[in-house]
Write a structure and sequence with these properties.
31 residues; mainly alpha
Length: 31
Amino acid sequence: MNLNHINNLYANGMSSSFLNEEHLKFLEKND
């Protein structure tokens, strides 16, 4: 898993709902 991707989403101040959605998409792409 690319933690930098997730950390960047947090750093950008995304809402938790957006972050969860993007995180799931990211995990699906990088299974």
